[in-house]
Amino acid sequence: LEHTFPTIYGDVYLSVQICAVLEDCLDQLAILGYIMPVSYEGRTDISNVGASIFKILLFSFLGDLKRANHLFSRAAKQSAVSSDNLRKVQADRQYASDVIAETLQEMQTSGTFQSLLQAVQREEERKSNFYTTIIREEEGRKEIKSLQKRLQDVKKEKDLELQNRNEMIAYLKDQLQEMKAKTDMESRYVKKDTELQVYQTQKKCSTVESDLFIETEKLRIKTDEETRVHMEIENFLRQQQMKLEEKLEYWMEKYEKDTESKQQELNTLKASKANDLAALQELAKQCRLFEQVIIEDRVEKEAARRKVEQDALELKSVKKLQAWWRGTMVRHNIGPYKAIKKPKEDEAKGKDKGKKGKAGAKKK
Asked: Where are the compositionally biased (Basic residues) regions (predicted)?
């Protein structure tokens, strides 16, 4: 008992300390709700403020309230919030306050804090799902950037190819001009001798020019085709981007609706659990009463059975004792059996004499 009492006293003292810390934390969150400003200047990121409220919860649970207040003030200054985001912060603060209140009630009633651990686990799961959605969005953006980069590379390659072909056309035109000039110079000296060669050369040049024109037309058609393909690819990528944005918006909305639905289901389950617990306690009370009545009835029946067995055993013992006493009286001729024995002896002697007489007659 001397060793047990300090342990019990220490546990009670620790529970009282934890309850005091939780009550102080509730007061701190209530004060934060009153002093929360309408908006801040700077970024519009809200995640740091929500995370700060849970850090306040953990630090306050460990007893470091001053550090928790400093942490929230710094996060609030660094994270600017709009009116919508501010309502989100207030909702997170209210959620943290409800979790602490539930933990405080559990500590006061049963001395445990399982509700706090469950709330932290639910928050970690929610945050993990949120991070998974962000990662998927980042992967989609990276894929879009990769496709845009590939499109730019293809465009640069086609532009370079077109430039090289234009340079080739210009080079061939220069060659044609040089050939014409050379033909004119030679025609001055050997006009008659080279008329046929000039004709053949002109014909060849016409053929080359026609081939070049045909090649140019082919290049123009191919360029138009590539431009059309480029526009179709660009339109396709834009449509894919719009679809991805619509899917992202749909999943975000679905996530919010599912979160709200699950919260309502959780509240319903909590209320049902409380009702079931009260009914279970009432049934347990009735069971204890019925069990007590059954135990008392069994004790009474057992006592009656033992009494009947005892009476039967005593009766059997009395009968055995009476039989033994009667046998003893008969064997030792005690009591009423003493006078009855003599006639039997005389009768036995007469029988012996009669037997002897019969035996003598037979011998004769």
From this structure: 352-364
42, exposed or middle or buried, with CB in 10 Å at 0-12, 13-18, 19+?
exposed
Nearest to 27 by CA among 79, 104, 80: 104
Query: How is residue 79 annotated by DSSP?
Result: B
List, in sequence order, every residue forming a beta bridge with 94; answer none if it has no partner: none
**How many whole angstroms separate alpha carbon 45 and alpha carbon 49?**
8
CA 308 to chain centre: 64
User: What is d(CA 179, CA 83) in angstroms, rounded to the nearest whole number?
Assistant: 79
**Whole-angstrom Cα distance, residue 163 to residue 169?**
10
Please provide the distance, in angstroms rounded to a whole number, between the alpha carbons at the two ends of the chain: 109
- Cα of 156 vs its chain's centroid, Å: 50
Structure tokens at 126: 């929610």
Q: Tens digit of pLDDT for each residue in 96-140?
A: 888 888 888 888 888 787 888 888 888 888 888 888 888 888 888
pLDDT at 49: 45
Q: Give me 286's structure tokens.
A: 């009735």
Quickly list DSSP for 45-89.
--HHHHHHHHHHHHHHHHT-HHHHHHHHHHHHHHB---HHHHHHH
> Which residues of the chain are under the pLDDT cut of 70?
1-11, 36-83, 186-187, 190, 337-364
Closest residue by Cα to residue 214 from 147, 277, 267, 169: 169
Single pTM value for the model: 0.30
